[in-house]
Every structure is written in C-alpha cells, then in structure tokens.
C-alpha cells in the first residue's frame, strides 16, 4: 500500500479525539514533524518480510454441495498430501476454519471474512504435512469461535451425527461432526473455553487440549492470547497422541510458548495400564445448576471403572473450582474484544503477524450488525465493563488465575489427575434460527463451567467418552499438571481399551 502523509486536518481530528488542546500553531508544527515518521513508514512499506515457506502443492479446493457435506460440517474440501513415510503417513485430517492453509479460503465462521485466502500455512499445518498427513479440507466453525454450541456459523448450524436435531458442540463444530462420523481420522480444533472438549463430549470422541503453549498457535486466528489453545480431536486415544507428538513443540514464532520439556513421547505410555495412577474426583465438578443427573451418574460410573482397572480414585473437595468460570469470564469477554479491536492481533509481542488477515478483518465494525447474538453479547458486555472500569476486572481476573491454578496444583501434588464431567449436560437441541437473543446466547454459553477454568490456568485436559445417557454420548474430563499429557493419555487409553463406551 502507499503511505499517505498526515495533513493538517488529520492532526486537527487527532487533537480533538485525544483532547490534547493544541493551538493552530502547534498543529502546523506537529503536521510538519509527521514527515519524518511518514518517511520511516514508507521505508517499511517498501520492504518485504520473510514469511514461512509454503512447501506442499494444493488447490483452492471447492465448496461442497449439500450432498457431499453431511451434517453441514465442511467449509471447503481440498486435498493437500504430505511427505510420504512420515510418522502419521496416511492419516486424513480436517482443519478448523480458523487455521491458515495457504491458498485455501478461510472465514472463521464469519460473513465478514468471506473471501479471505491466507498466504501462509500455520506451523501445525506444516508439521502435519512434514509427517505425512493428508489434509482433506477446512471444517466449519462458529462465528469468530465465540459459541460452545454449533448453531452460530454464518453458513448455518452443524448437526450432531448421533441426532441431527442436536448440537455437535463448538466452536470446533465442523471438526466435531467429521470426527464423530468417521469421515476423517483426526481434526485440529482450537479451544479458548472448551471448544475441543465440548464437541468431544457432545458427539463422543477424544478431545485433547494440551498445556497452554505446547502446540504453537502461529498462523491460527486468535481469540485471546492467554486462553488460546490448539488441540487434537480424534476417534481414539492413540491417534490423538500420535498427532500431538507431531504438532507440539517450539516454533520460535509464538509468544504463548514458554520453556517446553524436551521429551514429547505421548504414545509409549498408552499401554502402561492404570495401576499406580491416582485420580481425584472433584466434587464441585458435579451438581451444577444445569447438571443433568444422568450425565453426573455416567461420569461417576466412569471413575469407578478406572478404579476397577487399578487406579486409586478418591473424591476431593476443591471449592475454588466453583469460581473458575467466573474468573475466566472477564478474561474471555474483554480479552476477545481487545483482540478484535487490535485488528485481530494487538501488539506488544514478538512473533509472526499475518498482515493479510489483519487487512481482511480491519473493517469488522462496518458489518457488526450482521453478527449473531452471542458475538453481540460479548461486544456489549466488554464495552460496558471496559468503559466503567478501564480493564481493571480483566487485570484482576488474570491475577486471580494464579490462585485458581495453585488450588488445582495443590490437589495435583498428591494425585496424577483430576476427574469431572466435561460438560454438565448432554448435547441439547439446536435452537430455532428465529429464536430470541436469550435462547441463542444461552445455548452458546450454557456448557463450559468445567472446561473454561483450564483455559485460564492452561492445565492440560482431555475429554473421553465414558458412556451414554438416553442414547447420547457423555464425556469424562481428566486434567493434569503442566505437560503431563502422557499421563492423561495413559489413563484415557486404559479406559478405552477396557470399555466400549457405545455399549455402556
């Protein structure tokens, strides 16, 4: 683009907006001073930054017809074949449609992004292809990934393969239906409040949200940097572990990543069995106001089955868990809108900025009237609380996260993992498209009381199907210490090997 030097009228408008009280003489002087700044901007404009190389050929793909798009789960179908002979050679994988696949359209569930085509591959995409995966396309997701239901995408609701009148969970909704129906071997979703684990519970598969930062988020459209996680969704535990081994690790471009453990062997412990594992069933994860008794009962039965396999299982009270969702709320509400208003990336961090996405999304305010009610509710809440308190409650909540994490870690000092229902309810009915904001928003946000605290704290959490209630899947969530993914896979694989959840 061409840099336009600011003129006197631009400085006048800026002065009025900022309340600087400049005189006409000062305005003239500052206008002249902007010449030097504009010169440096023009130099930057003329330069070309280094972007990650796109190495594997692909076509833009095609938008599938209804006949080839069961459950309305796909956004774009394509085929990108990875390197033969890799660790996951032959696995067919879907990408949530907020993950960049260069040359293939991406809209993040939002009409405002329709037509955007990324120019880079996400780091995790390159890693999948380097190890032999075949990417089959981009899966639908919820509008800006705000909803935990599957009804908010601009392209219509995603339907649950177990009952097409019900939610498939979100915001990784298309991935959910594709994995649950066996149409792909695995999918990569993202999770800021439960968006990998909620779908896993609603449709009956394995959903792993690893420790915050373990999987690089580079090249994935962010929601809130302290909550952002990419995760693996698969039909079985071992496939999940194999995929995580491939995509985990430093890439040098994601500020979410801290000092990571050198060993990332998640598959070797899948055969180790449950003997010696210590499991704390968290009493406060059950009996929420909207908890369904048959869901709680199915998860308690799952805990008893783990005990029958040799694990030590105790029920523990952890009162602060009941406030975990409340602590998460200001971070998710204000942080999401802060990210949007920062042209989807904000600033003050080092790493890969995808400027093509920033350009594509920069005019979102002009289309805000098209947003679904759940996105509007987040915008309204963030606007009110930021105007009233100037971000103090976002900051206080971030400070309280340390207390919340310490409470979980106190229990985890004596136990290998925590256990609770992934969500308190079975997959609910999809709302009518013409329902009012109360039902629309309620259905989008009703289920994440147990999942959201582990986005705020960053602890790893996996949802596995543990049984059924009234013919619908029930998810059991296991939570561990930072970087204890191998232990969580061990427990999950032991349960999966011993019990077929579909017959329970």
TrEMBL record:
SUPFAM superfamilies: Amidase signature (AS) enzymes. GO terms for molecular function: amidase activity. InterPro entries: Amidase, Amidase_CS, Amidase_dom, AS_sf. Its EC number is 3.5.1.4. Keywords: Hydrolase, Plasmid. Residues 76-488 form the Amidase domain. Pfam families: Amidase. PROSITE patterns: AMIDASES. It is an enzyme of class 3 (hydrolase). The keyword Signal does not apply. PANTHER family: AMIDASE (PTHR11895:SF170), TRANSAMIDASE (PTHR11895). This is Amidase. It comes from Paracoccus methylovorus.
């Amino acid at each position: 683009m061409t840099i336009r030097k600011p003129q006197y009228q631009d400085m006048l408008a800026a002065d009025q907006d900022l309340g600087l009280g400049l005189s006409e003489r000062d305005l003239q002087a500052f206008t002249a001073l902007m010449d030097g700044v504009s010169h440096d901007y023009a130099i930057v404009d003329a330069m070309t930054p280094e972007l990650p190389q796109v190495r594997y050929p692909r076509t833009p793909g095609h938008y599938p017809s209804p006949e080839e798009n069961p459950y309305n789960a796909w956004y774009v179908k394509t085929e990108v074949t990875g390197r033969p002979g890799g660790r996951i050679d032959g696995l067919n994988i879907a990408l949530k449609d907020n993950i960049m696949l260069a040359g293939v359209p991406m809209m993040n569930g939002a009409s405002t992004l329709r037509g955007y085509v990324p120019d880079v591959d996400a780091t995790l995409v390159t890693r999948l292809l380097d190890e032999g995966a075949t990417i089959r396309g981009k899966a639908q997701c919820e509008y800006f990934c705000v909803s935990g239901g599957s009804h908010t995408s601009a392209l219509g609701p995603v339907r649950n393969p177990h009952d097409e009148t019900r939610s498939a969970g979100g915001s990784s909704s298309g991935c959910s239906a594709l994995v649950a129906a066996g149409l792909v071997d695995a999918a990569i979703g993202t999770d800021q409040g439960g968006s990998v684990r909620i779908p896993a519970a609603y449709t009956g598969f394995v959903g792993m949200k690893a420790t915050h930062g373990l999987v690089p988020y580079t090249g994935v459209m962010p929601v809130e940097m302290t909550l952002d996680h990419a995760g693996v969704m698969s039909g079985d535990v071992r496939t999940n572990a194999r995929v995580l081994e491939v995509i985990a690790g430093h890439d040098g471009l994601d500020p979410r990543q801290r000092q990571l453990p050198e060993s990332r062997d998640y598959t070797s412990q899948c055969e180790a069995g449950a003997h010696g594992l210590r499991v704390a069933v968290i009493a406060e994860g059950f009996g929420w106001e909207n908890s369904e008794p048959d869901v709680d009962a199915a998860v308690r039965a799952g805990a008893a089955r783990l005990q029958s396999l040799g694990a030590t299982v105790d029920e523990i009270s952890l009162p602060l868990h009941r406030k975990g969702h409340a602590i998460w709320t200001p971070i998710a509400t204000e942080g999401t809108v802060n990210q949007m208003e920062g042209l989807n990336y904000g600033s003050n961090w080092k790493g890969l900025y995808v400027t093509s996405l920033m350009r594509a999304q920069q005019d979102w305010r002009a289309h805000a009237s098209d947003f679904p009610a759940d996105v509007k509710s987040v915008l309204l809440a963030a606007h009110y609380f930021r105007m009233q308190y100037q971000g103090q409650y976002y900051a206080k909540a971030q400070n309280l996260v340390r207390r919340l994490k310490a409470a979980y870690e106190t229990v985890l000092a004596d136990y290998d993992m925590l256990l609770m229902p992934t969500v308190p309810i079975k997959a609910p009915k999809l709302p009518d498209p013409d329902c009012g904001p109360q039902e629309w928003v309620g259905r989008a946000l009703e289920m994440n009381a147990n999942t959201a605290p582990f986005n705020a704290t960053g602890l790893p959490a996996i949802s596995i199907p543990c049984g059924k209630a009234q013919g619908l899947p029930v998810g059991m969530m296991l939570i561990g210490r930072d970087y204890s993914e191998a232990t969580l896979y061990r427990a999950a694989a032991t349960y999966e090997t011993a019990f077929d959840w579909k017959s329970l």
